[in-house]
Design a protein that fits this description.
alpha/beta; 5-stranded parallel β-sheet; two-stranded antiparallel ribbon; 7 helices; globular
């Protein structure tokens, strides 16, 4: 495991797992949302593809995302391992709700200095809405990619329960 993608639905714990795996293996961790959103008002990084090309040219990395559409294939073609947090909605929804509530109440600065707001909860792009509406589609997309012949060389680890993920993580380093 040298070039790792950690994939799954919003709220599954991708960043947490990627950070932990990166620390245990000494692999540099990169947070996709921080690469994607680079400024106030959720400004999108116009140089995202170049940034991802630069990162994935390195011999070792871990990224916590299936990848936004413009870099998705690039990430999957460069990775050697996929860690899939394939958790049910009943697992991820309480997580994403707690996280968003904490971020909203504390006015925590995230991704380019942005903050989750009470008004943002009404948007279809809010993490809670996104996690709910994109869950099935994201699962199908990941499953399709893992079965796709061009990604056959990838070592894929699919975790359906948090306990399985924790047990696997305990075996590293």
């Amino acid at each position: 495991m040298e070039r790792i993608l950690v994939v799954g639905a919003t709220g599954a714990g991708k960043s947490t797992l990627a950070r932990a795996v990166g620390e245990r293996l000494g692999v540099p961790y990169h947070e996709m949302d921080a690469l994607y959103f680079t400024g106030p008002n959720w400004t999108v990084n116009e140089g995202l593809t170049d940034d991802v090309l630069r990162l994935t040219a390195e011999p070792r990395w871990i990224i916590d995302s299936i990848g936004s559409p413009e870099v998705r294939d690039l990430l999957w073609e460069k990775a050697d391992t996929v860690l899939w947090l394939d958790y049910a909605r009943r697992v991820i929804m309480p997580r994403v709700l707690r996280r968003s509530l904490r971020r909203t109440v504390t006015r925590e600065s995230i991704f380019g200095g942005n903050r989750e707001t009470w008004a943002g909860w009404l948007s279809r792009e809010h993490p809670a809405w996104w996690a709910w509406s994109q869950h099935a589609g994201r699962r199908s997309e990941i499953e399709r990619r893992i079965r796709e012949p061009r990604f056959a060389p990838l070592a894929a680890h699919r975790f359906a329960q948090s306990d399985d993920t924790a047990a696997w993580l305990a075996t590293l380093g």
